[in-house]
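Encode chain A's predicted structure.
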Amino acid sequence: MKTRKVALSLVFMAMFSSLIYAETADEEIARLKKENELLELQQKNANLKNNKNKNQSVQSSNVDKSGFLGFCKGEYANTGCFIGAEVGYAPSVKNYFFADYSGTSITQNTYALPINLILGWQVYSAKNWGWNFKAFFGYAGYSSDIKTTDNFPTLKFSSSALHYGIEASYLYDFIISQQHTFGMNVGIGGYEFGTFIGQSVDIGGVVMESLDSYTKTSFISSIGVHYFLNVNHQFWLTYKYKSGYNVGDGGNQNVNGTQLKYSTTPNNVLTFAYAYKF
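Encoded structure for chain A:
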């Protein structure tokens, strides 16, 4: 009898141990299965990342740079060379004239409508931002009639200028689609030469001999917006400030013993530009 009890106890212990082992084995199998699934998921993510980087690298290396201006092209569609025209409105130009025989100076406000030819290169470092580098060359007329006093005839000061230089701008786009791009542009640096030519003074119909030309330089800062249609057609609206033109800081010439000073100050201009990007 005692032997039977011992045997039964051993049987029950064996069954209990088997159950515990089976439960422990099932848990271990489930844990290993989860670990395998996690490893497979991590491997898939790594493969997707590698394939994405590989595709981007292939896309970048497969940019067709053959043909006319092929060197301008880049990874992003808004990258390329461009050429266009720019017209502006300068609302507060000051014409200054001084003659030492009278000891008085005359300043008259006028406006101008400058026009420039522009060309350059635009490169995007990402889909929604990039850089624009351009050169420009243009012309503007700054003539004005200066009424002094009732006893003195109207004085007409004629002035024209050739403006040429370079600009660099940072571009950031808010709206990007296959057909439309809209964003803002901020000038990060610009430098302009203004060569003022064809200057003369008409006093009551009597024209003084032509005055000497002179050249001034100016730094340019700017801010504006831009819109691209189908990538190639680009429209720009930009406000520019030029810091180098100052009243009285221009030409200085002696005419028949009279010392003349004269200057023109096109400091502020609002421009509208169209460019075609290749």
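The domain at 70-277 is CATH 2.40.160.20 (Porin).
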